[in-house]
Design a protein that fits this description.
The protein has about 100 residues and is α+β, with helices and mostly antiparallel strands. Helix content is about 35%, strand content about 35%.
Length: about 100
């Protein structure tokens, strides 16, 4: 399993817009991707992270070739929500687990 972490800065005071974008566009997109096992969104006062879990490297690589994903990213850039550089890390899963239902 592969863990992909996409991180970026975001415009102060606009986190609500970012969360809405994630719920309305990102989450449905990842839910429909072959090989995407889970998707989580996190943030602090300065940085947003989209953390996804994938079956294998091929499934992760297919995302960057998706026209829908590229369009969503372009929409984010055009929205003015993003600040600074975007970073992607791909990590091999080493263990752990989900220990119950996550609260919303």
């Amino acid at each position: 399993m592969i863990v992909r972490i996409w991180s970026t800065g975001y415009t102060p005071g606009r986190i609500g817009e970012f969360i809405a974008f994630a719920e309305q566009r990102l989450q449905p997109f990842f839910r429909g991707q072959d090989g995407c096992l889970a998707c989580f969104f996190t943030h602090d006062e300065q940085e947003w992270r989209t953390i996804t879990f994938w079956r294998d490297t091929a499934a992760v690589e297919a995302v960057k070739d998706s026209t829908i994903y590229r369009a969503m990213l372009a929409d984010l850039v055009d929205s003015g929500l993003l600040l600074g550089a975007q970073q992607v890390k791909k990590l091999k899963f080493a263990g752990g687990g989900l220990y119950g239902q996550l609260p919303l």
